[in-house]
Specification:
14 strands, D-Maltodextrin-Binding Protein, domain 2, single chain, alpha+beta, Fructose-1,6-Bisphosphatase, Chain A, domain 1
Length: about 260
């Protein structure tokens, strides 16, 4: 893909996530009338999730009709252009339905097995984290970078938890962090936590299994902010998901060592 086409898609993605955020905020402010279903234990979906994804899909179809679409709530559309959009319409639905303002709109652009565009938009804080491959990471248009020179015992690592894996597997990792003197954090939005790593607010993020729509955008943003990630094939992540570890250069190897033997790679 030419740099011009990538840049155009990047601008489109950021604008679209902000527009989708306004749609989601209208649902968030009227939660008493929100229709919510339970897909599984601690796994919720609302009409807001479904309709925000439809809003994003419609815009993509209008502007980039040959691009593929993969979303959390609706069936995939194959790509004719070699470029695929990966959507999480509301990451942090449990927070959303309970009135906790920690949820995001997430959009990644994938080509040839790797993420090329990543956007994570937090409508409540008015923050848009974004990256184009090779062009750095930004927060509301200003360059950001990973935390520099902060050891594990002086910072905070977020730990994800999901119903897709054995809940007991998270306990050894939390214990290892505490034993090292680190603080641990969970806000029930993995994408937002990963964005905070890119912005230097957290040292790292680990989760045993994430779906592609939750993590591909954030992994690119962290990488472009100077952080380290476990390199994965984006197409394989779209198919089956996988474990996610991101962090500053100072702590990344420590985080990998903590989860190896507890979680499969």
């Amino acid at each position: 893909m030419t740099p011009d086409k990538l840049s155009a898609r990047g601008t489109f993605a950021a604008d679209l996530c902000q527009a989708a955020g306004e749609v989601a905020r209208r649902y968030f402010s009227d939660r008493s009338n929100l229709v919510v279903d339970q897909k599984g234990t601690q796994d919720w979906v609302s009409e807001a999730d479904r309709n925000v994804e439809l809003f994003i899909r419609q815009r993509i179809s209008e502007d980039w009709p040959d691009d593929g679409i993969v979303g959390e709530e609706h069936a995939p559309r194959p790509s004719r252009s070699g470029f695929t959009w990966v959507i999480d319409p509301i990451d942090g639905t449990t927070n959303f339905v309970n009135g906790i303002p920690a949820w995001t709109i997430v959009l990644a652009g994938v080509s040839s097995g790797r993420s090329e565009i990543g956007v994570i938009h937090d409508p409540n804080a008015g923050e848009t984290f974004s990256a184009l491959r090779g062009e750095g990471a930004r927060l509301n248009g200003t360059a950001i970078q990973i935390a520099d020179g902060i050891p594990l015992e002086s910072g905070t690592v977020a730990v994800g938890y999901s119903n897709r894996v054995d809940a007991r597997n998270v306990l050894p990792v939390v214990s290892a962090l505490v034993e090292r003197g680190a603080m641990f954090h969970r806000n029930a939005s993995g994408a937002l936590s990963i964005a905070y790593v890119a912005a230097g607010r957290l040292l790292g993020y680990v989760e045993e299994h994430m779906n592609a729509w939750d993590c591909l955008a954030g992994q690119l943003i962290v990488e472009e902010a100077g952080g380290r990630i476990e390199v994965q094939d984006a197409d394989e992540m779209i198919r089956v998901g996988g474990r996610v570890i991101v962090g500053s250069p100072e702590v990344f190897d420590d985080l990998v060592a903590m989860v190896d033997g507890v979680w499969d790679g």
